[in-house]
């Protein structure tokens, strides 16, 4: 219950006033963009809603409360703001989604709002990355007890399983028979004997 109170209290102004105001402005522009979308536009409306949710997650530092943070290394706020890769990805969404909506909207009057919202989201993403996240080692990207390499191995295995399940319909590369990872090109032959005439 205390965690819920902390999350709700984080919706108001905090001691990081500059980030709060930036997120309020991004939220406001994306809300205006959402309200300007005509009926029958489910993809632009969905993208606007995703950006609004991402702004609320970033404002409340919710990833710090969702993850099992290693208390000996990070605080909840530090995990969300400075370390966790999901935070960076929701900031990328705040940058890319409004620009996508501006490009696909049926209402030409809402294009400038989408472009401004995307530029603001991009500036916010870049400044937060530059000031807080650019020097994070790869082993800390998930703030948790386990090593990040474990997650990357699981992604490699998922790619291998997808390749095996989809067969030749997935044209991104080939799976080498001895390594469970995706290879972007054919590997050279090993143990090949060539007879010259």
List key phrases describing it.
mainly alpha; 2% strand; extended
Q: Can you describe what's shown?
A:
- The chain is mainly alpha-helical and about 200 residues long.
- The protein folds into 2 domains: about 1-140, Up-down Bundle (Four Helix Bundle (Hemerythrin (Met), subunit A)); about 150-185, no CATH class.
- The chain is built from 8 helices and 2 strands.
- It has a two-stranded antiparallel sheet with strand order 1-2.
- Strand 1 (about 175) and strand 2 form a beta hairpin.
- Helix 2 (about 15-35) packs antiparallel against helix 7 (about 110-135) and helix 3 packs antiparallel against helix 6 (about 85-105).
- The radius of gyration is 22 Å and the shape is extended.
- Mean pLDDT is about 75; it is low at about 175-185.
Strand content: under 5%
Mean pLDDT across all amino acids: 77
Order of helices and strands: HHHHHHHHEE
Largest sheet composition = 2 strands, antiparallel
What would you call the structural class?
Answer: mainly alpha
CATH level-3 fold name of the largest domain = Four Helix Bundle (Hemerythrin (Met), subunit A)
> Based on DSSP secondary structure assignment, what is the total number of beta strands?
2
Identify the CATH architecture of the largest domain: Up-down Bundle
CATH class of the largest domain: Mainly Alpha
Q: Kindly provide the radius of gyration, computed on alpha-carbon positions and rounded to a whole number of angstroms.
A: 22 Å
If helices are DSSP runs of H or I spanning 4 or more residues, what is the number of helices?
A: 8
Strand ordering within the main sheet: 1-2
Give the overall shape. extended
**Which parts are unreliable, with pLDDT below 50 for 5 consecutive residues or more?**
175-187
Number of domains: 2
Distance between the termini: 81 Å
Fraction of residues in H or I helices? 55-70%
